[in-house]
Amino acid sequence: MRIALDGMGGDNAPTAQIEGAILAARELPDDEIIITGDRELLGRELSLRKDVPRGISLEHAPEVVEMNDEPAAAYRQKKKSSLAVAVNMVADGRAGAIVSAGNSGAVMAAALFDIKRIEGISRPALASFFPTINGTCVILDVGANVDSRPLHLLQFALMGKVYASEVLGVANPKIGLLSIGEEDSKGNELTLETFGLIKAREKNFVGNIEGRDIPMGLADVAVCDGFIGNVILKFGEGVGEMLFTLIKQALKNHPVTWLSLPFLWAAMKDLRKKADYSEYGGAPLLGVRGACFICHGRSNAKSIKNALMKAAIYAKRDTTRKIEERLKEYANGNGSV
């Protein structure tokens, strides 16, 4: 398996990309990670590291898509950027997956125009992950589509279910539709119509769920439009950071409790790991003909490494083909979508 890594995308590039690739290569000895970007700069960064494993190579790309570039313009004008070169490697079959922490709009534009959509998928969706009391919930869409129709949300449900099953290893994932109440009659026009579509096609549909139901683990897949999903994602990140800050402040205000910290440290580390976005790597863009993972712009080496690991699993388990097969089942066995 060959994975293309945008070496110049993100706030911490190329250091985080180089270090993340090294960490991933140590756990993927049979795969190759191709880092795209300025060959001289990347080579210099690599030379500063000891014990660089085999399986890392460089692909020269002299241009960089900046975080403040307009996505469509960047796609059209910077054909030799580290992002464009990495995406084209997937598009022409030289790589099975791409990972980028760069301009997310530009990554999505490049993937849509070069890798292209799976036949039958109206709109690809960006999926993210939220820790729950008993595992992880896949939330989609979290920003690729601000305005969606019921058909789109139906397809988000099927793609989220396949991803949860194939990549996260969840047996028979439960699907929930985000709404303002659990009753079937609650919601706006979009959710009311979507409810009927998903219910008619998914045996594991648990119905409407509210925002509070996500951390409680009532669903393995939460379906919503990109506007709501992005708000939930950013709110969840903020709440997580706030809670750890408050815990630290509370411990400092109570000296006796502070002295007990060595005994609590293991539990604190486990909690921190569960809430740490870098543990989940990147967000997959589901619905394109290949594994495309978009990371936080501020991703560190751990996040890049985990995104590379997830991308490798996605590609090796032929997740794209399984989404295509599931889409055909929707169309042939349960009516046209």
Structure in words:
The chain has 337 residues and is of the alpha/beta class. The protein folds into 2 domains: 1-121 and 287-319, Isopropylmalate Dehydrogenase; 127-278, Isopropylmalate Dehydrogenase, CATH 3.40.718. It contains 12 helices and 11 strands. The protein has helices at residues 15-27, 39-47, 71-77, 82-91, 104-115, 150-166, 189-201, 226-253, 255-259, 261-275, 301-316, 319-333, and strands at 2-6, 32-37, 56-60, 97-100, 125-132, 135-140, 175-178, 205-209, 221-223, 283-286, 291-294. It has an 11-stranded mixed β-sheet, with helices on both faces. α3 (71-77) packs across α5 and α4 (82-91) packs parallel to α5 (104-115). It is globular and about 60 Å long.
